[in-house]
Recover the amino acids of this structure.
């Protein structure tokens, strides 16, 4: 009988991963080639860069450290436009 192992991430792990990814995303936006690729193909660019974000991690981050989340998202919003944000929120099936 095969055993299955289920990984359970704690809120602390989710927050740490999400915070690190958002921080790296803001830093990477300083790279013009990355910013252009992100503008043209956001989901694929973020996946290739290892910067994907999940709903569960974002919720844990907001709940656990709202001030830090606000700071990093303010920095992100200063570097991207509303079209990018819309592209990130559209399901990949559409």
């Amino acid at each position: 009988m095969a055993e299955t192992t289920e990984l359970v991430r704690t809120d602390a792990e989710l927050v740490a991963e999400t915070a690190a990814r958002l921080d790296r995303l803001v830093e990477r936006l300083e790279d013009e080639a990355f910013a252009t690729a992100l503008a043209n193909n956001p989901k694929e660019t973020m996946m290739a860069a290892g910067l994907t974000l999940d709903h569960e991690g974002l919720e844990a981050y907001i709940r656990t450290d709202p001030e830090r989340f606000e700071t990093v998202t303010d920095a992100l919003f200063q570097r991207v436009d509303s079209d990018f944000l819309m592209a990130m929120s559209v399901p990949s099936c559409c």
Notes: The mean pLDDT is 83.
